[in-house]
Amino acid sequence: MAETPATNPANMHCMHTHTCGELRATNIGEEVTLTGWVSRRRDHGGLIFCDLRDREGITQINFDPEHSDGDAFKIAETMRPEWPICVHGVVRYRGEDAVNPKLATGEIEVLIDHATVLNRSKTPPFQIEDGIETAEDTRLRYRYLDLRRPEMAARLRLRSDFTFAIRSALHDRAFTEVETPALFKSTPEVRATSWCRAACSPAASTPCRSPRSCSSSFSWSAASSATTRLPSASVTRIFAPTASPSSPRSTSR
């Protein structure tokens, strides 16, 4: 079954009907609602064009004072880069001279009749686009902006897909994922942390000299096997507080 805007997971339970990388010439004449960041704004003296960007792509939107309501055109005059906005309008053909072959949505634009500013943003320290020449320390300082750039967003999505594939493969082989925080709990009475022992055979809890070194982001254990498969850096040494709840400090180090 072909995926429609209504069945597209990116559009479910969202403020928009389509993503900014979804519209094509087949959508001409449809009324759509888009949400995204203002990527670029161009004022052509009476007509204002804007590139609206989300994680799926870019769509050009057009503000015409004869078609847009008064508030929508005023918003177009004042909006700045990286403002998140929500717009409603009609999809139309750009014209042969205005088609942009570099964009998947380059054949169409959306003529806006209503616009809402969801939030305002300060001018970003660098352009949110690929191929920028910006110092790495600046990019790291504003990492939340750097991750909006298409090439960085693609890497983030690749990492997500890779991690999901690993989890799916282990899950299909009857492994159980155990997050480390589920194995211990801090108590307000003492500064130590109570850990649940994970071992192949029963044993008494022993103090751990380096509790931080015993933890990892997550570990996997085989559900159908008697052997607990844990990495050496995972919870192989488990400790419990040696001080009583009434003691002001724990004696474990």
Detail the topology: elements first, then pairings:
Elements (H helix, E strand, L loop, with lengths): L30 E13 L4 E7 L2 E7 L6 H9 L5 E10 L14 E10 L18 H6 L1 H4 L3 H23 L2 E5 L4 E3 L6 E3 L22 E5 L31
Parallel strand pairs: 3-5
Antiparallel strand pairs: 1-2, 1-4, 2-3, 4-5, 6-9, 7-8
Q: What are the salient characteristics of this protein?
A:
single chain; 253 residues; alpha+beta
Gist?
The protein is an alpha+beta fold and 253 residues long. The protein has helices at 70-78, 136-141, 143-146, 150-172, and strands spanning 31-43, 48-54, 57-63, 84-93, 108-117, 175-179, 184-186, 193-195, 218-222.
What does this entry look like structurally?
This protein is of the alpha+beta class. Helices cover 17% and strands 25% of the residues. The protein is built from four helices and nine strands, in the order βββαββαααββββ. The protein has a five-stranded mixed barrel with strand order 1-2-3-5-4. A two-stranded antiparallel sheet has the order 6-9. A hairpin with a 4-residue loop joins strand 1 (31-43) and strand 2 (48-54). 19% of the residues are buried. Mean pLDDT is 78; it is low at 197-201, 209-217 and 223-253.
Spatial shape: globular
Series of H and E elements:
EEEHEEHHHEEEE
Structural class by helix and strand composition: alpha+beta
The main sheet orders its strands as 1-2-3-5-4
What do the pLDDT scores average to?
Answer: 78
CA-atom Rg in angstroms: 27 Å
Main beta sheet: 5 strands, mixed, barrel
Given as residue ranges, the uncertain stretches (5+ residues, pLDDT < 50) are: 197-201, 209-217, 223-253
Number of helices: 4
Number of strands: 9
What percent of residues are in strands? 15-25%
**Gap between N and C termini:** 61 Å
| Helicity, as a percent range | 10-25%
